[in-house]
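Following up on my earlier thread - several people asked me to post the actual chain instead of describing it. Fair enough. Here it is, all 207 residues.
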Amino acid sequence: MKIQNHYMSDSSDSFRNKTVQVYKNDYPELLNYYRSLNEDNDEINFVNSEIRLVNEYIKPVVESRKTELEKKGTLDLTNEMIKKGLSSYNKIISFLEIKKLELEKESNELSTIINEFEIDLSDSKAVEKIIYLNELGIIDFLRTKTKAGISNGGLASVLSGITGIKAVTIKPSLNRLSSNDMLDNKHPYYTQKTVDKIKTFLIELGF
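Reply from S.P.:
Thanks for posting it. Predicted structure:
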């Protein structure tokens, strides 16, 4: 599967000639690649894009058969689509629609929790606190407040006073943020699920 060619145009080879089970197996890899294209790409946008691409791919066949069936005085389009080999594409769309509903439900539940309660984040893991500080622009802001610049070691010391995290734990994360190597499993942004959770939370708060 040539995932690197995905999303380069209005067509895609992510779903062509696949059963729904094969597509489900490929889904995580396709999602990861989509996320790698832009830091703002999230799963709901990926699902919406996939639904659009599949629908656009089968649209000419669907419209053609619909016209023919209308001329024959019948509208058994579902049966005709199965005959034309589009059954798998329809199942892929159904899978994506269900996934979309699940993601929207999770987002709505999180929004309700945030609106109804004050959430105490003081027990957040060290890596989560680093992500919060970075997403809020606090790390970059602190760098601008020094006249002659500041080393990651110096900044780690300052942040240790704010967060309660040991400076020796913070410094490696600051070094990796500077290198921006997302493939490094010690990078704060390595676990995408954690990053998405924090970004969604901040967005819900209005940041």
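Residues 128 and 194 are 7 Å apart (CA to CA). That should answer part of your original question.
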